Amino acid sequence: MTLAKTRSVSLVGVDGFVVDVEAAITSGVPGLHLVGLPDAALNEARDRVRAAIYNSGEDWPNRHVTVSLFPASLPKKGSTFDLAIAIALLAAAEAVSPLSCAGLTLVGELGLDGRVRSIPGVLPAVLASANAGCQTVVVPRPNGAEARLVPGVEVVPVASLRELLCLLRDEPPPTEDESSEPIPHHGVDGLTPRTPDRRADLDLADVRGQAEARRALEISAAGGHHLFFSGPPGCGKTMLAERLPTLMPPLEPEAALEVTAIHSVAGTLPPDQPMITKPPFHAPHHTATRAAIVGGGSGRVLQPGAVSLAHRGILFLDEAPEFHGGVLDALRQPLEEGEVRLSRVEGTARFPASFTLVLAANPCPCAAAKQMDCSCAPNVRRKYISRISGPLLDRIDLKLELTPASRAELRYDLEFAESSTVVAERVLDARERAMKRLSGTPWRTNSEIPGPELRRHFTPSGEAMRAADEALQKGTLSARGLDRVLRVAWTIADLAGRSDPGDDDVGGALALWNGRWT
Amino acid sequence: MNGNQMLGQRGEDAAAAYLGRLGWKVLDRNWRCSEGELDIVAYDGRLHVACEVKTRRSTAFGDPLEAITERKAARLRKLALRWAAANRVPGARIRVDVIALVCDGDGFALEHLREVC
């Protein structure tokens, strides 16, 4: 047999495509020829595979070997095909039975010593393989736990090419102690692993005063509404925002898988924690570029950006006016659609990006504690705050101007401050109520209901809508604004346990949308 | 004649003997022209075959087959066509094989690669 076939997976964004890897030995000048649009890293597979085969004690077939990656028109990148190429090659040379590897999907990068190295994006790769009907997947050992998250797939974690060959030949595994060699726990692509969760000891009770802001956080957590805090420094904007994740319920299994897939592709999965179950919290610095926020990269290597890393969680932009021009406005499309599509010559990658946006800003550059002490000229103030554009503010449901906590609040409020667990329980109740109402639809929270659907099925009574009608009449509320106010009104009603929003709920939502608490 | 040349000579003899055992008729050995030299030209009963013989003492510096690069293959093809022209054989009726020999005790381990180009 001089022909062998196996499978691997190519990733475009967070979507995997199963790629057939075929190897044929034919007459011709000895050498390995790789066809099927490989990129530079994949072309180097030739040398990696050769060294790995030699160092695993196998014979290199000194023949004209053609390795083809099918479909040939799909551009392929990276080093994840190494393992599949090596096995197809050895099967074509009859070093292993071609039948033993025909039904396998293999992903993994080979070290020169024959070790199988971990790769980013194992979870989406295994998902793609399962969807294509291939039930046995060989993955690098460090990625084994991540691969097992996919139900109904037999995962074969291997540490070295030698070990995999022994498995395919039904021989006992190699006796040399592979595990004694410590595998350095570096992040994939040389990234440092994520810092340990510093959210663990945060609690809403730490914040003193700011009852309105707490309430806004609760509404945001219950309905997934976007939030904007403005206020002088030191009044607790950042503190509040950082405590939003503690109010949110853990991710549902389906959402957790989605979030984990994104972080797997980005290479930001902590090695000891294969599944992300808590809503992610992502707070990029204000020097972030547009590509860092929405995702990007050149050619075939497209990386998810901050909006995707915050998928099903919170994207917190502190000092929002300090972000470079255009960065904030790049958020407008993902805010509406819940996903980012990055288009390059080689194709379009899709990254989910449905997140809760939290913005924090000082009211002016001098940011005096009391408004009357402000030394900024009016046009400077106007210019500063206008860096957050109208269209972006129009998409934010809850806008809040914070004032510094009073002396009484700072000294005595601690006893009355509710802790995160108490609020989180109310949030969970509200979410369950919303979910019951939305059962049978693809939406889970009030903020996800599309406008037309909202107006068709979820319009409160005329009585309750009076405040909104007035605002529309005066022109202070846009059509999109009305939708947003309605969604928030539903969330407020859910939190209060009412089955229908009343005029209080709509009025409260309208006040939060306008940025004034009446 | 230095050691390497003697080894090459022994290798070519061994290769010719091997082809004889296959039942091929050796037509020419060390055929030269201005472009270079063909080690062995044989007839396998169907086609004419120009054979390049590579001999090495060990594989410490790589398998002899690895010495066949695209450039060398192109040169062999050209030489084969030259031989065909000189001997009035149609160009499509000749092919190039490579025989690799590695010393193994007194004899050789032999590998025959057919139709390289």
Specify the number of helices of chain B: 2
Query: Average pLDDT of chain A, to the nearest integer?
Result: 86
Indicate the overall shape of chain B: globular
Class of secondary structure makeup of chain B: alpha+beta
CATH architecture annotation of chain B = 3-Layer(aba) Sandwich
CATH-assigned fold name of chain B: Trna Endonuclease, Chain: A, domain 1
CATH domain class name of chain B: Alpha Beta
* Spans of at least 5 consecutive residues with low confidence of chain B: none
* Percent range for β-strand residues of chain B: 35-45%
Q: Can you tell me the number of structural domains of chain A?
A: 3
Integer count of domains of chain B: 1
CATH third-tier fold name of the largest domain in chain A: Ribosomal Protein S5, domain 2
Give the overall silhouette of chain A.
elongated
How is the main sheet of chain A built? 5 strands, parallel
Q: Name the quaternary structure.
A: heterodimer
Encode the helix/strand succession of chain B as letters.
HEEEHEE
Helix proportion of chain A:
25-40%
Question: Can you summarize this structure?
Answer:
With 518 residues, chain A is α/β, with parallel strands linked by helices. Chain A is elongated, with a radius of gyration of 27 Å.
Structural description of this entry:
- The complex is a heterodimer of chains A (518) and B (117).
- Chain A has a five-stranded parallel beta sheet. Chain A has a four-stranded mixed beta sheet with strand order 1-2-4-3. In chain A, strands 5-8-9 form a three-stranded parallel beta sheet, sandwiched between helices.
- The termini of chain A are far apart.
- In chain A, helix 20 packs across helix 21.
- Chain A is an alpha/beta fold and 518 residues long.
- Chain A has helices spanning 40-43, 45-55, 82-92, 98-102, 122-131, 144-147, 161-168, 211-223, 237-242, 253-266, 290-294, 306-309, 332-337, 378-385, 390-394, 407-412, 420-437, 451-457, 466-474, 479-496, 503-514; strands spanning 3-12, 15-26, 31-35, 64-70, 104-106, 109-110, 116-117, 136-140, 154-158, 227-230, 281-282, 295-296, 303-304, 314-317, 339-344, 347-352, 356-361, 398-401.
- In chain A, strand 1 (3-12) and strand 2 form a beta hairpin.
- Chain A is elongated and about 85 Å long.
- In chain A, 45% of the residues are buried.
- Chain A folds into three domains: 3-175, Ribosomal Protein S5, domain 2, CATH 3.30.230; 202-220 and 405-518, no CATH class; 226-243 and 258-396, Rossmann fold, CATH 3.40.50.300.
- Chain B is an alpha+beta fold.
- Chain B has a single domain, classed as 3-Layer(aba) Sandwich (Trna Endonuclease, Chain: A, domain 1), CATH 3.40.1350.10.
- Chain B contains two helices and five strands, in the order H-E-E-E-H-E-E.
- A five-stranded mixed beta sheet of chain B has the order 1-2-3-4-5, sandwiched between helices.
- In chain B, strand 1 (25-33) and strand 2 form a beta hairpin.
- Chain B is globular.
